[in-house]
Design a protein that fits this description.
With 221 residues, the chain is of the alpha/beta class. The chain is built from 9 helices and 4 strands, in the order αααβααβαααβαβ. The N and C termini lie far apart (46 Å).
């Protein structure tokens, strides 16, 4: 009753269609949740995202949750998560993504780290919020401080694939804790060329992990 009263005074709207939400709904109405543009990558191991990491034999699977279209629902959700301080959107997306990853076996979840300058500006790591949602559903721990991002790179949206990979060299510290023979799920919000996540995987391989699973909410081109 209290929640219904609060909703009456401060109505919440769907982040996609702007319709009023009922008390059981959060951030997305039921219709928009059912209309999410699912990739179903988890059903096809040789999907488009996996091809970006096929060079590394320890990357066993790669799955994205949603297709990304300019102006579409995925972009709206990620914009709210990254720029409007809607941290719980990340938790929601992780929770919704979790069933597609439940068949995998891994020892911990590792969110792609942010550089401290960007972390200060945003106050949280959006990938950690997604990892939090996954962790709650899958009952697997999140280890978010294993690796630090020690170089702050500029936007890569206008760089070629080769330039992006070159730009990511040496941006991560070495792995700080023992991870040898472990299996890890690396989670990011968006993967385009795979350079950011790929270099992180390289650090994990150097530290002796047994295998890696890569996941993201959306994949771009």
């Amino acid at each position: 009753m209290l929640q219904d009263f609060i909703s009456l005074i401060f109505p919440q709207n769907c982040l996609n269609c702007q319709q009023s939400l009922i008390s059981e709904e959060k951030y997305l109405c039921t219709a928009c949740k059912l209309d999410l543009p699912l990739t179903n990558d988890y059903k096809n191991q040789s999907n488009e995202l996996y091809s970006k990491f096929a060079f590394e034999p320890k990357v066993k699977t790669a799955s994205s949750f949603l297709y990304f279209h300019k102006g579409g629902i995925t972009q709206k959700l990620l914009h709210q998560l990254k720029y409007n301080r809607k941290k719980d959107v990340g938790v929601l997306l992780g929770s919704l993504f979790a069933p597609q990853l439940s068949h995998l076996e891994f020892d911990f979840i590792m969110p792609v780290p942010l550089h401290k300058s960007k972390l200060r500006k945003r106050t949280y790591n959006q990938s950690e919020k997604i990892a939090e949602g996954l962790s709650k559903q899958l009952d697997v721990e999140v280890r978010g401080s294993l690796v630090q991002r020690i170089v702050a790179t500029k936007s890569q949206t206008r760089k070629s694939k080769a330039q992006r990979w070159n730009n990511m060299e040496n941006v991560y510290s070495e792995v700080k804790e023992e991870v040898s023979d472990s299996s890890v799920l690396v989670i990011d919000d968006v993967i385009t060329t795979g350079a950011t996540t790929g270099m992180l995987c390289q650090r994990l391989v150097e530290a002796g992990v047994a295998d890696i699973h890569v996941a993201c909410i959306a994949r771009g081109k």
